[in-house]
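Internal tracking record. Fields below are filled automatically when a chain is submitted to the structure queue. Please do not edit lines marked as system-generated. If the sequence contains nonstandard residues, flag them in the REMARKS field before resubmitting.
Queue: standard
Priority: normal
Entity type: single polypeptide chain
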Amino acid sequence: MKILNLYCGIGGNRKNWGDDHEITAIENVPEIAKIYQDFFPNDKVIVADAHQYLLDHYKEFDFIWSSPPCPTHSRLNKSNCIGLTIKKYPEMSLYQEIIFLQNWFKGKWCVENVISYYQPLIIPREINKHYFWTNYYIREIPKEDRLHNSNVIELEKRKGFDLKIYTGIDKRKALRNCVEPETGLWVFQEAFKEHNKLF
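SYSTEM-GENERATED OUTPUT FOLLOWS
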């Protein structure tokens, strides 16, 4: 399959997908894109705005995974803002992409995000403390501890990424932003099974 991996980060969701497919990964932070490329040298990595890239290139792919920025949707964001005068709008590119994919993309797709502090505008599936919007069914996955509040060393072990050689990035944030590799594989395999029924 030709796969588009949007907002790829360092590649938590992609880690266990293997190299049997043609994968294009989009990341707008060059330092993070470099780490992804180091871990997945066979993927085509492009430093670009993932939201715009989806609009311009969606017809070129069989499967699209999107993990739009999540901080403005998270429950932590709300708790951090409670005592502040200035509040922030939730970043609505999340719902723009879901609606766009629902209506225009012919392949299989998945949009992943955090559990939000508000009732989602489009009802997702909750799996392993993530929200997933897809156009295919995802069976329940065995629950795993995300260790989300752990330190860098524990998160490196949990996510399976050694970031010791990298500097100039917030390693804890990069690791916390990762979908757990087993969850990424599970969601991917569910799409792949559906894909095989069609092709």
